[in-house]
Amino acid sequence: MYCIEATSSPLSNAVTDTTIEKTPSTAGVAQSKESSDEWSPDESKQGSVSLRTYAAYVSAAGGIVAVVAVLLAIGVAEGAKGFSTWWLAYWIEQGSGIIDVSTVR
Questions:
Q1: d(Cα 45, Cα 53) in Å, to the nearest integer?
Q2: N or C: which end of the chain has fewer CB within 10 A?
Q3: What Rg do the C-alpha atoms of the chain give, in angstroms?
Q4: 58-81 residue pLDDT tens
Q5: 31 phi and psi angles, rounded to 5 deg
Q6: CB 40 within 8 A of CB 47
Q7: Looking at residues 19-42, what average pLDDT do you find?
Q8: Residues with Cβ < 8 Å from 9, sequence gap 6 or more?
């Protein structure tokens, strides 16, 4: 018999007791038993996000230098895309510069 137990979730403070058992009689089917008396839903708050939360996001993303570099790269990519669209429209509007005399009357 194999037994795996998890006693806490890394994303919440709620403590859960999950036991998964595999026995030869179940032919590989996992059975899960959860103790619902210890489980509580995550708490949510309404309001504005604190600067400490944004600082944690920036830190998790690699620091302020990494965040600025990524935002700068996104800005350059969007600018290049906009410029290439504008240039293609301008180029098509100007034409090839060669006049086909067979169609001009």
A1: 13
A2: C
A3: 30
A4: 999 999 999 999 999 999 999 999
A5: -115, 135
A6: no
A7: 57
A8: 15, 16
